[in-house]
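[Solved] Which block belongs to which protein?

Original post:
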Amino acid sequence: MTVDQIFSLIKKFFDVLIVWFVFYYVLRNLRKNVKMALLLKGILFIFILKILSDVFDLSTLGYLLNYVIMWGPLALIIIFQPEIRNVLEQLGRSQLLGRHKVLTVDEREKMVYEITNAMDYLKKSRIGALITIERDNSLNDYIEKSKKIYADISSDLLISIFFPNNPLHDGAVIIQGDKITSAGAVFPTSDNVKISKRLGTRHRAALGITEEMDCISLIVSEETGRLSMAIGGELYYNLTLDEVKIKLLDELRPKKMIFDEDVENAEEETHEENN
């Protein structure tokens, strides 16, 4: 094999590697945007129908799908312009190598302990609260427009922020890593028509930010004292404090750790079956 052939193979390898990385990076972030994820499912469904129409020679369906595929991209750009813009913004905010800080087990447990302690007090006192924890997508745009704090996470500080008549009471607290970064943040509210009319602005804002960004939002209802959690555009309503603790610890675990634990559990089950 000549030097030119070796060099050509290396170029092809890096070419494929770069394309794979770009696809992985884009799809990873699209998966965290609920609206665009649904849109991609719809596009995939159309292509599956097209393949079936060709296989089974469904001429009428194939004829219609040809027009959909031909003019579909232009229609999607016009109809979903806000969603496409949000996805591009989200890709720009994404941290290339994931979260800026991976918390240790002790740090995660302390963080959850302080947050849930504050939520317990706020629940009993019927004080409304919205706490959002950043994950893979940066929330710096919202931090810049809110009151910066950058303090250690403590239940006392969270309670004081949301205490009635506090200037920052109505906004959201943003947590990055193991720090309370800002308070008084304002999020876009969800326009999901399926949301119950009983839910107020805090719940809609919690859903709105999790529809656009990869983050966790915790809500304490001012009217009922009920605890809720929003993740990936889904609302987990009326949770107990223990349920919040368990789910929060699970969601804060690094993805690699979750995979390693699944492998360990599978190995343990296999070992037990063999015995």
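(Second protein starts here: sequence line, then its structure tokens.)
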Amino acid sequence: MGFPGTWMTESGSMVYRVVPKCACSSIGQIMFYSDHGRYFDGDIHDSTGGLHKWNQPESQQPIEDSVKARKSLTFTCVRNPYTRILSSFFDKIAGIQRNGKRYRGNMVPQLIQRYGVDVGSPENDFDFDQIASFRRFLLFARDTIRWRRPMEPDIHWSAMSGHIATFIVNGGYYDQIFFTEKFNEGMQKVLDAAPTPVKLDVNDAPRFNESEGHGPKRAHPVSAYFDALSQHLVWEIYKKDFQLFKYDFDDPDNKYPKSEVDIDEVHAKLGR
């Protein structure tokens, strides 16, 4: 099985388990900088050199050796489940991708036809009922996760705990887990603890939000999108994420965690 979704600096200073929609573009660029003293020119997801990635065959052995021997500082980053699923909707469903097309080809037309989701278009300035469409998308997301219909779940809205668990189950161990909502503080702790060839103050690093500008902006407070049914669906999909990563289920507008992550608890509950 190995360590899918895992990146490592070429110097071996740090290993990162990617969780989609949790600042992965910024983290990847900072990892790249910490080795080379410059940022990757383009979207870090497109890099094929300068950063080890599990999906590059030549990177698999170095990553596996490092993780199994616990040679590198190992970390991941999590995000409030409410804002994460909203971000997935606006980026992947309502937005136009970097290649100028809709995400995953026929998925959005299928959502329009089968779930009544409306996402507008660049031609009408993405004018659509965001709340109604998001709630219909949430039903679709739940169906993919619970029933694997009408398709397999997508990495951008499947639970964070699932991504994070594969690394533990296959023999990995996390030294640090930090919050997207406290990004600078958490990322700096990683950089301070890792033996990076190039030092970096995170406050000086640009934020790399590769999904920005490709679609509509969220028009309402987070809580407006989640009525009682939507909250029920969110709990069904993300119960473990709320519990393990200490986010506030009762108040969607409180994006901050209620306490720090208990790393021992994460390993105990996700390593089964």
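Accepted answer:
You had them paired correctly. Confirming on the second one: The radius of gyration is 19 Å.
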